[in-house]
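Hello forum,

I keep getting stuck at the same step: I have a sequence, I want structure tokens, and every attempt I make locally crashes halfway through. Rather than fight my setup again tonight, could one of you with a working pipeline run this one for me? It's a single chain of 409 residues.
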Amino acid sequence: MNQNYWKIFANKLFLLFFFTAYLFYNPVTSNAVKLTSQNVDMTLASNELVIINFYADWCRFSGILTPIFDEAAAKVSELYPEPGKVVLGKVDCDSETSIASRFQITKYPTIKVLINGQPAKREYRGKRSVEAFVSFVQKQLEDPIQEVANLFSAADVKSRVVIGYFENKESQEYQIFRKVATNLKDDCLFYAGIGETFRAMHPPNETIIEFRPDRASPKSEHHTFTGNSADYDSLNIWATDNCLPLVREITFENAEEITEEGLPFLLFFYHPDDLESIKLFKEIVGTHLVQEKQRVNFLTADGVKFAHPLQHLGKRHTDLPVVVIDSFKHMYQFPAKSDYRNHEHLKAFIDDLYSGKLHREYHLGPQEISAIEIVHGNNQPAEQTMPPESTFKKLAPSKNRYTLLKEEL
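Reply #2:
Ran it on my machine without issues. Output:
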């Protein structure tokens, strides 16, 4: 055989290998893609959105979901046939134990959402129907960037905002900006300015990316990105640090997500007409209590919307602002003699939670009780009291919301 024959054979073999690999990682199928330890990493790396159904054959609820999820996968592949966009996959947790362990799967079926290869903060907990899955995918793949005519039209909003100026949408910087916006669209609003208006405001051929906090944040939180805007990692880290601030606002929409993080809440209940108190609280936490973020989640809460937890404490909107720790077992009120404007008092409040002092004082009163007196039963109070039960633990995701745990069968 001559040399040309081997060249043609090698080229055909390469094309066959490439086509096989393409189908392996971006398969066109009427069902959800079966993910294994051999193809899961490449699938996650090569697709913008991946939704995974973690199932077990012995689970009746997994069996009910499988045909629904497969049908949804077929419809999604029709809507988005282009490679690299979206894949609906499934993992058999009994045969792919390493993948199940990697994603900490404890209930079946569990549906995880991954964006640009990274797990989203929220699992899919919506309705389990073909229409609901397709609608969810469409929502996830909406353009996360709003184009504006000038910077001022994007400035006066309550949400946190990232604004970028770009020469054109085809630039590498814009594509990186869009990828970051896809990751953080639930935490920040992303705007882009393209055109003559912006070109007059900035030097030509220069990308400008700025972060602007919500109106309840101090002006010191305004930042301009100083790194390489064509570097995804550095821009993503910078945007994440700004879009996920040390002090967050808790709402009924994100309470489940924040509760799932597992840290007790230090809650600052405020009146919606009093934004200055929020600014002060954020300044105090950001200046003096950054190191405490490993022990509590610092949160602000609209005291009018969250009136129910305050009622458990005997408080009303006229008592705002009110500071509380919710341990997911009990709610503890900031001592009446303490001042939230004093960071040392807030630090002591957190220390008392972890030392057990807050719980003991609800039983034994505010006086100092020695370990010997507690052991021997001396100095018992006339009446035992209990702190109010946690309200926010009821918003946490159930461990077996959609199905039974394996050990329960």
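The chain has three domains: 3-141, 145-236, 248-366+389-395. If your local run keeps crashing, start a new thread with the error log.
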